[in-house]
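Please decode residue identities from the backbone states below.
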């Protein structure tokens, strides 16, 4: 998937999600798309300052904006709203169920601006809007792998086909953990430090096991064994064991895998007959959480060895 791909969400879907009341609906409302989770409260715009105004954003008016407009005569207020609507943004949302000014509907028709209303207060609506739309328009890409949640840690398991990713995931499910995606993991970048993974809807909750075929995890193990989406906190690369290759035995050096500009802590685990991958992944998840909390077992062991060496030298 190209890096410069821009994702959008139809305005009609936002209206449906938040059950917004339509005060004015233009004929082309089905073609209006939201490209940003950012939302704007037009404070400076009410006094005529439009420099750096982003007309791609949804606009929102709350109690403060209405009290400001209410102090003007009708003709003065109409000029302010007219200048504001000339920017032709996607939609204006009125919060707290406030009664709108009659001229606002007339100008919405004139400039083909969608006019909506919600009973929610401005802060609550803006917070919910950002969370919802940010996920919908986030940059994304699909990776071949398995995503599981182990002790609250989102673990993305990568590796060549047949290395044992799905089998390890099923063993983890049997041990009480949850599977998010198998085979194809859709990864979304929600911020400069946060990745969220999910499964394409058509294969959600299904896992392919060689020799058995396709199984439905939700139907076999129950609703507690699945999750629709989750953060990606760690990446584990599975690869066949190579005799003679030196693998990391201490964990002193932190490794990362870069996905869409986000560095995710990662490990490479060699797969060999007799190794219990589920247990290893469980320990890796707990160890990763410990590191996030500031404790690194390898560093602690190194400190102990250094103290012992210093004590022996001082004898």
């Amino acid at each position: 998937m190209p890096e410069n791909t821009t994702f959008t969400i139809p305005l009609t879907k936002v209206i449906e999600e938040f059950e917004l009341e339509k005060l004015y609906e233009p004929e082309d409302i089905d073609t209006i798309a939201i490209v940003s989770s950012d939302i704007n409260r037009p404070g400076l715009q009410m006094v005529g300052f439009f420099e750096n105004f982003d007309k791609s954003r949804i606009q929102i008016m709350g109690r403060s904006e209405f009290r400001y407009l209410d102090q003007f005569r009708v003709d003065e207020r109409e000029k302010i709203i007219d200048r504001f609507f000339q920017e032709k943004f996607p939609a204006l949302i009125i919060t707290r169920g406030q009664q709108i000014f009659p001229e606002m509907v007339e100008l919405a028709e004139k400039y083909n601006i969608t006019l909506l209303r919600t009973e929610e207060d401005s802060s609550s609506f803006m917070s919910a809007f950002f969370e919802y739309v940010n996920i919908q328009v986030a940059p994304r890409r699909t990776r071949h792998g398995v995503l599981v949640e182990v002790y609250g840690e989102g673990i993305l398991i990568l590796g060549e086909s047949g290395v044992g990713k799905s089998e390890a995931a099923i063993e983890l499910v049997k041990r009480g953990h949850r599977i998010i995606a198998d085979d194809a993991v859709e990864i979304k970048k929600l911020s400069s430090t946060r990745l969220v993974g999910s499964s394409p809807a058509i294969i959600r909750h299904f896992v392919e096991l060689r020799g058995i075929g396709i199984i439905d995890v939700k139907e076999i193990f129950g609703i507690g064994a699945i999750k629709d989406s989750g953060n990606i906190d760690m990446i584990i690369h599975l690869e066949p064991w190579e005799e003679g290759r030196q693998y990391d035995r201490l964990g002193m050096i932190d490794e990362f895998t870069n996905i869409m500009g986000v560095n995710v802590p990662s490990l490479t685990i060699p797969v060999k007959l007799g190794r219990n991958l589920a247990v290893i992944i469980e320990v890796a998840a707990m160890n990763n959480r410990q590191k996030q909390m500031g404790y690194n077992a390898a560093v602690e062991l190194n400190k102990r060895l250094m103290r012992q060496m210093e004590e022996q030298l001082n004898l």
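Observation: The CA atoms of residues 145 and 158 lie 5 Å apart.
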